[in-house]
Amino acid sequence: MERDITTSFTHTYDIRFIIDNSEDFSRLSEMNLEAYDRIFIITDENVYKLYGESLIEQLRMFQKEFFTHQIQPIEYSKSIDYYPELIDFLESNTAGRYDAVVAIGGGVCLDLVSFAVSTYMRGLPFFMIPTTLIGETDASTAGKTCLNAHNTKNLLGTFYYPKVVYNSIRILRDCPKRITRQGLSEAFKYSLLTDGELLSDIVSFQNNVFDSATMEKIVRKTIESRIAIRQIDPLASNLGHTFGHALEKYSNYTVLHGDAILTGTIMSMFYSVEKGLMCEEEKIKIFQLMRNAHLNVWIPDDLDVKKLVYYMRKDKKSSSKKLHLVLINGIGEPYRGDTPFYEADYEDVEEFLVRYVQSYEFKIGNYSEFLEQEELR
């Protein structure tokens, strides 16, 4: 008699998020690296120049042998083409499961290293030190690793979790405002998907000198929101991403992630109003908050809708027949049907975008150059 075997494998991951508001990175001592034989540090060139020696000096308290590798902080580094170089670094130095890998950098570095570490020997012990706000609130918070394929952003990925994430408010104070804007755009999006509590804090932060207490609140609250959304669905946080990722690719990645996602969030809101999911007044309220926070509300004046939709078809949430969009009904009210995603016809979205581009007020030429500004007014 034939009998099938059915089982279920589950695993619980414990991640510690350290938020350090000290000037001297003193809480690095809490990363608990004592148990490992050696430490492999992977960082980007810019971060190493600014903080490499200071951070590594703190990590020397663990009295381990160090190996370091630097990458360029550009989108190419987070690609299938660059991936073998990082694997060669680990393999040539015989990195193993009794060693620890520490990634120090922004989103590109964290995405690349987490993917490589998750696939090398089926996973090495992994620690993160994000050095940008988008790294602290997005790239390090939900175990999503990713690489870009030749034609699609973030096409390759795994779920793999760090043991400890060390978030320094002190480092964020030194970030260019343009880079901080990317993280604030993601924090704004997460707040829209949860309780909206951070929206006024982001506006206040952007209109005053750097305030460590407000920044610490933004980091802490966004991590909590990210975790809560992750428990619903790993992709339920992707408000604005179907439009935004396509805009990044459309610009050949000259538009940074947060700026693109904020634009995508606006497109999502306008689409939600067309579909009767959001009222016009709520859209206007959110849009004004975005403007008050000096986030990116602009689109290129020559946006090619067909090309944008072509890239949207490659979105990992979507099927061959439907786009699966993360939408909101209002602040703190994400769309919820049978799944967290709204199913939309490609033709319908393309027709919407044609109307949107024709009627949208905030269009500008030299789009990528415009977004290179430290502050948007």
Overview of the molecule:
The chain has 377 residues and is an alpha/beta fold. It contains 14 helices and 12 strands. It has helices spanning 45-59, 83-92, 107-119, 133-139, 169-173, 177-193, 199-206, 212-230, 241-250, 257-274, 280-292, 305-312, 346-359, 367-370, and strands at residues 16-20, 38-44, 65-71, 100-105, 126-130, 164-168, 299-300, 322-325, 328-330, 333-334, 342-345, 363-364. The strands form 4 sheets. Strands 1-6-5-4-2-3 form a 6-stranded parallel β-sheet. A two-stranded parallel sheet has the order 7-12. A two-stranded antiparallel ribbon has the order 8-11. The longest helix has 19 residues, at 212-230. It is globular and about 60 Å long. The termini are far apart. The mean pLDDT is 93.
Layout of secondary structure:
Blueprint: E1 16-20, E2 38-44, H1 45-59, E3 65-71, H2 83-92, E4 100-105, H3 107-119, E5 126-130, H4 133-139, E6 164-168, H5 169-173, H6 177-193, H7 199-206, H8 212-230, H9 241-250, H10 257-274, H11 280-292, E7 299-300, H12 305-312, E8 322-325, E9 328-330, E10 333-334, E11 342-345, H13 346-359, E12 363-364, H14 367-370
Parallel strand pairs: 1-6, 2-3, 2-4, 4-5, 5-6, 7-12
Antiparallel strand pairs: 8-11, 9-10
